[in-house]
Amino acid sequence: MVEVDQLKRNSLGGFRLVWQAMGTLSVAADAAYLLTGVVEYALGATPLALLLGVFAYLFIMNTGYQFSKHVNSAGSYYTFAGKGLGGIAGTFQAWNMAFYGLIGYGSFGFLGLAAFITLLDPAYKGIVFWLPVAFFAALISFIFTHRGMKVSTDYQITGGVIEVAVLLIGSALIIIHAGNLNTLAVFTTKYVSGASQLLFAMIYSMILYFGTTVSITAMGEEAVSPQKTIKKALIGTVILSGITLIIVSYAFTIGWGPSAMASFATSPDPGIILFRKLNPVIYILLILVTVNSFMGYNISVSNADSRIFYSFARDGILFLPESIGRIHKKYKTPSNAALAIFAFSLVIAIIFGVLFGPVKGGLMMLLINAYAAYVEHIIASISLPVMMRRIHKFKVIEHLIIPVIGIVILVIIMAGTVISPGKYPENLAVYIGISWIPIAGILTFIEYKIHPDKVRNAAKMSIEEEALEPK
């Protein structure tokens, strides 16, 4: 294990944790960009896909919720895997988390923002316009992470409260304006062609929430009373974001027309179009809060990923240099890890942006990273009952039945999309994403052969274990 300074302990309360996670969820950015991925497959059943996504994620979130009662570390799901299944499983987990962390960050955070800004006016869709947007989005998020969580969460709280308010007010106006066109049929399969379409839609609807648990649990070494505050923050975030996104998706579907949602997915910024019909003030506010929302995502993910990569480097795995595991002396932040993530994610985003454009390229990267993210949750869910039995805290429902349900949901979605991968280029994204799983296994095997002691001892550090060490 690399000798490193500690992160700043007891510096994050539950309220700040909620808005750190709300930044990752970035509801306005989801409504402007990622929601079109849901609509492409769910069509008029988009509110149903969002609702199913919330319920499915609650089963999956249970794993992080249960672990947080006993294990808190900057490694998040990496540490969860190691605590139950050992260092080899933890290292395999780390390769998957590194893959989806870098790709997911660059996709939504950089290309998503670039796509949104350029779609406001198609005249600015060339690389000379979207590339600077992606670069400065990455740079600003690094600066916030470098400066620390108080600065970051101050920004998230201020912008996030305004963002949620604008979305709910605008959605309410759309719903009221629709009058007798309102219908609960959008929460049924009436407007979707089949189960496979709904499964593809759920990949995107679940990705909306997927960073929630990681963005909170990665702050385990910095949270105040993490065994209590992390649990409350997880539940509070899912409730707040779930209600907001379901209301927004319902308003967009009703406002556009359930039978006409195929054109919603192909229209430039359809949510903006709906808000523009209301009045110019709400339209301008939506543009502003959406840009803020993308930046909130960038900052939150940079915060979480930097701590996770710091944890990898601290344990000496993934062939990362020791410098990645160093903490900034003044700000007590993993700024070296944040800088590395900034560089790698930006390069990957530029490659996909050049090949497919910022809109399609970003959505493809999100689809690619979904499979590694799903595997991360599956491994942690398998690890949960093993660890709980070891510490004599095992409960059948919380630690076995609910995790099994979560695993089944993820496996069904993964298998369904691989069997029916869709058309090009989405099928290419599916093949790349699923291929990473065996590649991560091969990399773990190679790493074990090169430095077996580091791999065997990986993913063990938590503040609970640290408290037991002799002083």
TrEMBL record:
It comes from the Archaea. It comes from Ferroplasma acidiphilum. It is a multi-pass membrane protein. Residues 18-427 form the Amino acid permease/ SLC12A domain. Gene3D superfamilies: Amino acid/polyamine transporter I. Keywords: Membrane, Transmembrane, Transmembrane helix. It is found in: Membrane. The chain crosses the membrane at residues 17-35, 41-60, 98-120, 126-145, 157-178, 198-221, 233-258, 278-297, 336-357, 363-388, 400-422, 428-446. One of its GO terms (biological process) is transmembrane transport. One of its GO terms (cellular component) is membrane. This is APC family permease. Its main location: membrane. It holds the Pfam family AA_permease.
